SufBD protein (Candidatus Dojkabacteria bacterium), 142 residues
Amino acid sequence: MKEKIADLYSENNNKAYKVLLELESITTESNELYNYFDELLKMLDNDKTYVKTRGFRLICALAKWDTESKIDKNIAKILNTLDDGVGVSVRQCLQALHLILMYKIELNDKIEVKLKNLDLSKYKDTLKPLAQKDIDEILEYL
């Protein structure tokens, strides 16, 4: 598992993405990755947007297994990933957020506030409506 997490930092996007999908798949059936939560949280501090995005997606996938409320304790840091300047990454994060909403209902208010205050003006005109659509769909769910 440590090797797979190390692969998430890879600049070889194909390799890293394959590992990301594999780990996301594992989280649907097992809490095996939960032991590495703190490492995934550290990924959110990385300078590289793609590393942050991978960490964010896996943290969301772990919401189902968060028996120690680690997501609750770190929700501000997790949601700050949505302030990233790369629109494609933010969309990936928005699309993963539903997993937290499903399993961590107590965080819905914090997520709602964050989404309503997201600044989409920094994104390209072609991406803004897509990100807004993602946000609207999440807010509808709430």
